[in-house]
Amino acid sequence: MKIQAINGFKDILPEAAVRWRSIEQCARDIFERFGMREIRLPILESTELFVRSIGESTDVVEKEMYTFTDKGLTMRPEATASIMRAFIEHGLHVQQPVQRLYTIGPMFRHERPQKGRLRQFHQVDAEIIGAVEPQIDAELIAMGQMLLDTLGIKVNLEINSLGCPVCRPPYKQRLVTHLQEISSELCDDCRRRTLTNPLRVLDCKKPPCRAAVADAPSLLDVLCPECDQHFFGVRQSLELLAIPFAINRFMVRGLDYYTRTTFEFLTTDLGAQAAVGAGGRYDGLIEQLGGPKLSGIGFAMGVERMALLMEQQDKTQWPSEPMDLFVAALGTESLPLCTRLTHELRLQGIKTAIDYSGRSLKAQLKQASRVQARFTLIIGDDEMERQQGILRNMASQEQCPLDLNGAHHQLAERLLEALR
Ligand code: ATP
Ligand code: MG
Question: Which residues line ligand 1 (CB under 6 A)?
Fold first, then answer.
């Protein structure tokens, strides 16, 4: 029996990895323009961290976490909680009151695998901690939008406000009353959630539930003056930055820690996997985890979903990185020289390939084309005798002699010159 990768865990093959790297590089470039700094975090954390931050009655904590129950450890299902843990643990706010941090890496959730939904998936995650102004929310959203635009991924941006501990509890009460009135129209899950996590009912994907909650009260109608003003400020700033958005009165997020602004970047091209990225403000989270009373906002983008959308929009195969030079050692005489020279060139930063098999020139030239070498250096017995190799330009097929005399580094220098 062949051993295969487990369900929901996927290999990223070299061709795909090229695209992944370009996504990651693009994220780094853009985030750094916004003053974000990278943080790298462990994959295993105390289970308690996620229970306390994400919330006990969320889907993620209830049924999606990979937990080592005997050790009290969990493979991170998201990055925000870990960033907050590190932020508190290292007192990062003392060093700099506003921290802008990002991280890129794998997350783990036990979900039903489908296109764009895996059990190990990857996120690009960005957080701004310690700033309360609505312009910050708009700036962060604009950064996410800039990343997607730069990658050529088309999305619709939806925003909402989830209020704060002042306006949310009375709203929740009103919502529970309403949901109880319409409970016969809701699915079993939603009937249960009516008491455990009523906001989540608004977010149920099942069409009967969607129809049933269509005229449920929205938190937007009962925001406290501070939250209302904050949300107004976010909209105004987004307009100022010319970022198009729609308000989704019923958007709730799957994690309990959100307050005020929430947002999603949505696509219609990935079936049920509508969100490419999402995030929001979490003003009480850091304090709740035992840290200072500081607010924050962040988002996470799914790398698999970004890569899938890029593939759908651009069918061209991404070429792998071309090599600068292919060293064709013909016969056995030239092999030591070619071996040593190849190493020397790699030391000098030249992407060099070599074939040790002593195969025919034809076979080696074919191999040189396969690795997209710009040049091939041909050295056989005759060339050794004359101390003159042949340098072939693979595109023009022009050939010129190359003096093989002198020390290895001198030869490497002559080659460097010729390759320029
Ligand atoms: P969904 O509604 O699709 O389950 P979510 O609300 O659970 O998404 P978040 O926790 O907000 O997702 O994570 C942010 C992003 O991470 C998502 O928009 C998505 O691109 C990606 N993501 C989340 N879960 C998965 C998964 N299981 N497989 C692949 N990507 C995922
Ligand atoms: Mg989910």
Answer: 78, 109, 111, 116-118, 121, 123, 254, 273, 275-278, 300, 302, 304-305
Closest listed residue to residue 29, CA positions, set 148, 147, 153, 154: 147
Residue minimizing CA distance to atom 8 of ligand 1? 275
Q: Which of 273, 276, 310 to mutate to test the pocket of ligand 1 (most atoms within 8 A of CB)?
A: 273
* Nearest ligand 1 atom, CA 273: 3
Q: Please provide residue 292's backbone torsions phi and psi, each rounded to the nearest 5 degrees.
A: -70, 165
Only one residue has tokens 């595109």, namely 395
Provide the residue type at 316 as one letter.
T
What's the pTM? 0.91
* 26: Cβ contacts below 8 Å, ≥ 6 apart: 147, 150, 151
* Ligand 1, pocket-test mutation among 59, 119, 304, most atoms within 8 A of CB: 304
Ligand 1 midpoint to CA 275 (Å): 7
Nearest ligand, CA 274: 1
DSSP 291-319: S-S--EEEEEEEHHHHHHHHHHH--SPPP
**Cα–Cα distance, 125 to 105 (Å, whole number):** 9
Structure tokens belonging to residue 262: 């929430």
The model's pLDDT over 155-168, given as tens digits with 9 standing for 90+, comes to 999 999 999 999 99
**Residue ID of nearest Cα to ligand 1 atom 11:** 278
Q: Six-digit token pair at 255?
A: 């994690």
Question: pLDDT for 32-64, tens place per residue?
Answer: 999 999 999 999 999 999 999 999 888 899 999
Q: Point out the ligand 1 atom lying closest to the alpha carbon of residue 254.
A: 6
Contacts of 292 (CB under 8 A, 6+ apart): 88, 93, 286
Beta bridge partners of 347: none
Full set of structural domains in the chain with CATH = 14-167+223-313 (3.30.930.10), 325-419 (3.40.50.800)
